From TrEMBL:
The keyword Cytoplasm does not apply. The keyword Transcription applies. Belongs to the GON7 family. The lineage of its organism: Eukaryota, Fungi, Dikarya, Ascomycota, Pezizomycotina. One of its GO terms (biological process) is tRNA processing. This is EKC/KEOPS complex subunit GON7.
């Protein structure tokens, strides 16, 4: 059976590029169990890629901050509120 590759490529004008490929083998039969197993593997692969991308980008952000020797208060607030809706206290 042939395999497929799921990959992420990062390019930047100031940072080194990186690529994260994951090879997946589609199910050999069309049974529900085989498809469920394949989809679970696909979901795990996507989560793994996302974790790797997050680590790479966090490392690059830290390197950028070291180069500029600053970490703004806004960066700290953004990290603290990541994924949260921020409502202004003026409202």
């Amino acid at each position: 059976m042939s395999s497929s590759t799921l990959s992420v490529k990062y390019t930047s004008t100031v940072n080194p590029h990186f690529s994260i490929p994951v090879t997946l083998t589609p199910p050999s039969d069309t049974s529900v169990q085989a498809r469920q197993t394949y989809l679970a593997s696909l979901r795990d692969s996507i989560s793994s890629i996302q974790d790797q991308v997050n680590k790479e980008l966090t490392t690059r952000m830290e390197e950028d901050n070291k180069r500029t020797n600053t970490k703004s208060v806004n960066d700290e607030k953004e990290e603290e509120n990541y994924g949260e809706e921020v409502v202004s206290e003026d409202e």
